[in-house]
Amino acid sequence: MSGTVVTSVATGAAIAAAAAHAAKLRKEEEQMTSYNGNDMDGWEFKIVRANTEYFRKPENLKKVRDEEAQNGWEMVEKFDNNRVRFKRKANRHSGDNLSGIDPYRTTVGIGNGNLVAMILGIIGLFIAGLVLFAVTMKGSVDVPIIIFPVLVIVLVVGIIFAVKKARG
């Protein structure tokens, strides 16, 4: 029961922190993307976001730039490793259905659902490891001592894999 409460509290805190961070980023983007009337005349703009530092790798940035170029989008600037701004002439809509890329996509990389599943999986593994450790230390279960190094290795490898997968 207490493991469920801890997981629920941790999940709620993570969701609240993510929402606050998203609001901060939106406000920052509004300040960084101020346009005057001439900037907007005949152009449309979008920001492509990633949940991880996807654009940290030059090959990922190039891949997204090339994909967006298929629909006439030009990179304006890279805000950080999570956000890139693009623009294109507003009259470029005619070729939108020729590309396999959604011309109005605004996210790349690992999706929100996969990221949440990965975080909850890591939390679940950690709690399971703690429970196994506590039960074994009380002596209620006869588990060979080798289980602890194996459990630690599995947890560490799982976390490393998850982080690498998230970074693209």
Structure, described:
This protein has 168 residues and is α+β, with helices and mostly antiparallel strands. The protein folds into two domains: 20-109, no CATH class; 113-167. 57% of the residues lie in helices and 14% in strands. Strands 2-3-1-4 form a four-stranded mixed sheet, with helices on one face. The two termini are 36 Å apart. The model has no long low-confidence stretch (mean pLDDT 76).
Helix and strand sequence: HHEHEEEHH
Indicate the structural class.
alpha+beta
> Which stretches of 5+ consecutive residues score pLDDT under 50?
none
Side-by-side strand order of the widest sheet? 2-3-1-4
* Backbone shape: elongated
Query: What share of residues are in beta strands?
Result: 5-15%
Most strands sheet:
4 strands, mixed
Q: What fraction, in percent, of the residue positions are helical?
A: 55-70%
Give the averaged pLDDT, no decimals. Answer: 76
Q: How far is the first residue's CA from the last residue's CA?
A: 36 Å
User: How large, in whole angstroms, is the Cα Rg?
Assistant: 22 Å
Count of β-strands? 4
Tally of individual domains: 2
- The helix count comes to 5
